């Protein structure tokens, strides 16, 4: 092909492609055809939660993230406990709760503070009628040491759990000695990281490693010695 003819041929093709076809509306539509506009965007709603077996929809929030969640919930009949037990709940897994029975003298139920601790919250574990018809209220207190005392965890002979004792930092009573605790992290960290945090802290402890602190009767009392 002659190269001089190529631009002319290309221009002719473009001109033909760009020229609209001259037809009328009557030519484009047959009498039996109608014009239908395209439907706009449509939002499809999520399928609604359908509950069966007498359960209802419960709207709540996730126990960790706080995001809204909905699920089918069915009220279970009240749990019946034997004499000497009270109904409550336990958590077998994360965000799960299950009814169960606990003994009235369970070791984890703290009704009063001891060993120098003071109560800071009270929670009602049960308020109702137990087996046998007795009306009972079971409360548990949470205890804490005063700000000028520290926690000493000690496991006594024959015990399967640690006991918490509130011990003074200074002015150690008879039977106690002054010890010094070093903040290992701040000992090697830069000054700006541990600004205001003492590198060493003095505290009292029983002179005899097997000794047990003793207190007066009133809650929050400071230890008066060791035995």
From TrEMBL:
Keywords: Signal
Residues spanning the signal sequence: 1-18
Protein name from the UniProt record: Uncharacterized protein
Top-level taxonomy: Eukaryota, Fungi, Dikarya, Ascomycota, Pezizomycotina
